[in-house]
Write a structure and sequence with these properties.
The protein is an alpha/beta fold. It contains 6 helices and 11 strands. A 9-stranded mixed sheet has the order 9-8-7-10-6-1-4-5-11, sandwiched between helices. The chain has a two-stranded antiparallel sheet with strand order 2-3. β4, α2 (69-78) and β5 (82-87) form a beta-alpha-beta unit. α3 crosses α4 (127-135). The N and C termini lie far apart (61 Å).
Length: 250
């Protein structure tokens, strides 16, 4: 079984994000960039499936500028077999990304796609679902547990008030939630070995894909400044403030 793991290069989760002065986006110059945390969970799950003898090859792919090779090399160091960078400097939207991934799936003969449920930059949470629709494959989103038996995948996912278990036929799309696993760190020897693993670069033209934006972002603004909290001396004082100042209770 060949597994495809898409990866996105995003601002590191521990960086304090700043909005540009012209509100055209967030500042990325001289900012630490990393692999999207949900994608780290996806590659970890793919590696575990290979270690169980359930996967024959893991291919990691990223779509974006040349610098995305960094996270692909990280994926190779973690255990992926090879990588494909679809190079583009355009600001690609979820539908276009899903079309690129569909082409990759068909080109590589993929049976399972494991990907983060969303990227932490725009939080769109769309690509996995759109890809499943384009391929007409079953999907298990927000997976917190995955088991494979007899060409079927059981996906456990958290829902309001409990857990839901889905049984999917292969081929399928899985999107990962935080509780699925704990990603490993790449060892230094594996980082060195990753430099020799194959990394192919493709363009949108070679894949016959057009960057076809469906919407424009008019403005990005930071959230309003939070007001400083206060301490109260008693329950009676707290209730008085909730009633007369915050007016959240009557």
């Amino acid at each position: 079984m060949k597994i495809l793991v898409p990866m996105k290069r995003v601002i590191d989760a521990y960086v304090n994000i700043r909005v540009k002065s012209d509100h055209s986006g967030v500042e990325t110059a001289n900012v630490k960039m990393s692999m999207n945390p949900f994608d780290e969970i996806a590659i970890e799950e793919a590696i575990r499936l290979k270690e169980q003898g359930l996967a024959s090859e893991i291919i990691v792919t990223s779509i974006g500028e040349t610098a995305c090779q960094e996270i692909l090399r990280t994926g190779l160091a973690l255990g992926a077999d090879r990588a494909v960078l679809v190079q583009s400097d355009d600001n690609l939207q979820p539908l276009t990304i899903a079309k690129i991934l569909k082409t990759m799936v068909e080109r590589e003969g993929i049976q399972l796609v494991i990907m983060g449920k969303q990227a932490i930059d725009f939080d769109n949470n769309q690509c996995g679902q759109i890809l499943a629709g384009l391929l007409n494959w079953p999907q298990g989103t927000f997976a917190s547990k995955i088991t494979i038996h007899d060409q079927k995948i059981e996906v456990t996912r958290e829902i309001d008030g409990g857990l839901e278990t889905l049984r999917l036929n292969l081929p399928a799309i899985i999107t990962t939630d935080l509780r699925l696993n704990e990603p490993r760190y790449a060892s230094l020897p594996n980082i060195m070995k990753a430099k020799r693993k194959p990394l192919e670069t493709l363009t949108l033209t070679e894949l016959n894909i057009l960057a076809d934006p469906r919407y424009t972002i008019e403005s990005i603004t930071p959230p309003p400044q939070r007001q400083a909290g206060i301490k109260v001396e008693s329950v009676e004082q707290l209730i008085d403030k909730l009633v007369n100042e915050a007016k959240v209770i009557e």
